[in-house]
């Protein structure tokens, strides 16, 4: 993977701005050191902690406004927000409060979305846009996230012991790490062939990638996202959303894979059909489009 990154050269201006901003936002995790307080600052912040968080947000935003012109500021403020969420997740994770596992979730969610942008900046800068953060993926995606937060909060209120199953949350965290690493490995292996939007026209540089993780699964980025999304709900010990995410993700990727494979057969013909016969999709009970030349 490191070789793949090296081959694609240096990080561009947008990527560098996003990385600096993400780290600046994540610096909120250093507040306990500056205040001389407990690492679990967010679990019981108190007046001093709330004031420190407010000053951090205001100071960082002012710095971004001064440093970056408006086009880069739009990138920087999103990356900084994700970094801030990551830093807050670290603070929640550091303590022994009932919100510890939610801190793991915050780290996982924010890092997933930021790394989508960063890897695209490394891999395929020509397709890079604000949409590469996937923060506005779809109404359904945002509704699913909101549903998981509501379920976690209500169950934590009425069934607090359900949110303290550490072994189950650890399994979920491992699923999240595996899924995200697999997806990012797929993006880096595919290089400029990877795009967040299914392409309807074949470019001159578009090639069929069958090496690396694509030798394991035909759609490793979807496999990674599938297990990442379910893992977030296992991590939160959300039984309702766990089932809902599994069913909704499976249905989404079944339709997406069929749509994408029609295009890939059109692009590569028999070469893709042969690859399809040899390599599984990677997702349970999804065989892909049933189409022959």
Structure notes:
The protein has 293 residues and is an all-alpha fold. Helices cover 67% and strands 0% of the residues. The protein has eleven helices and no strands. The two termini are 35 Å apart.
Label this structure with key terms.
globular, disordered N terminus, 293 residues, 0% strand, single chain, mainly alpha
Task: State the helicity in percent bands.
Answer: 55-70%
Order of helices and strands: HHHHHHHHHHH
Taking all residues together, what is the mean pLDDT?
Answer: 91
Total E-strand runs: 0
Structural class: mainly alpha
Low-pLDDT runs of 5+ residues are 2-7
Write the topology of this structure.
Layout lengths: L1 H6 L5 H14 L4 H5 L10 H22 L2 H25 L5 H24 L15 H20 L7 H25 L29 H16 L3 H30 L1 H9 L15
Brief description of this entry?
With 293 residues, the chain is mostly helical.
């Amino acid at each position: 993977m490191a070789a793949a990154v090296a081959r694609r050269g240096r990080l561009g201006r947008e990527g560098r701005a996003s990385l600096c901003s993400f780290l600046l936002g994540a610096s909120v995790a250093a507040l306990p050191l500056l205040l001389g307080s407990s690492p679990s600052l967010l679990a019981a912040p108190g007046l001093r902690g709330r004031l420190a968080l407010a000053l951090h947000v205001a100071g960082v935003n002012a710095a971004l406004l001064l440093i970056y012109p408006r086009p880069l500021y739009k990138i920087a403020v999103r990356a900084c927000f994700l970094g801030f969420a990551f830093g807050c997740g670290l603070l929640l994770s550091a303590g022994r409060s009932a919100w510890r596992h939610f801190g793991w979730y915050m780290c996982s969610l924010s890092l997933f979305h930021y790394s989508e942008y960063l890897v695209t900046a490394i891999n395929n800068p020509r397709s890079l846009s604000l949409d590469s953060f996937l923060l506005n993926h779809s109404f359904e995606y945002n509704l699913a996230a909101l549903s998981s937060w509501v379920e976690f909060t209500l169950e934590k209120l009425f069934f607090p012991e359900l949110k303290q199953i550490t072994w189950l949350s650890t399994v979920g965290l491992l699923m999240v790490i595996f899924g995200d690493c697999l997806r990012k490995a797929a993006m880096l292996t595919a290089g400029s062939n990877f795009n967040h939007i299914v392409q309807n026209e074949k470019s001159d540089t578009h090639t069929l990638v069958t090496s690396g993780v694509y030798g394991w699964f035909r759609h490793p980025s979807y496999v990674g996202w599938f297990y990442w999304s379910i893992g977030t709900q296992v991590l939160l010990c959300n039984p309702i959303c766990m089932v809902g995410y599994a069913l909704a993700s499976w249905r989404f990727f079944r339709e997406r894979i069929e749509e994408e494979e029609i295009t890939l057969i059109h692009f590569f013909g028999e070469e893709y059909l042969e690859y399809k016969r040899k390599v599984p999709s990677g997702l349970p009970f999804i065989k892909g489009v049933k189409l022959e030349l």
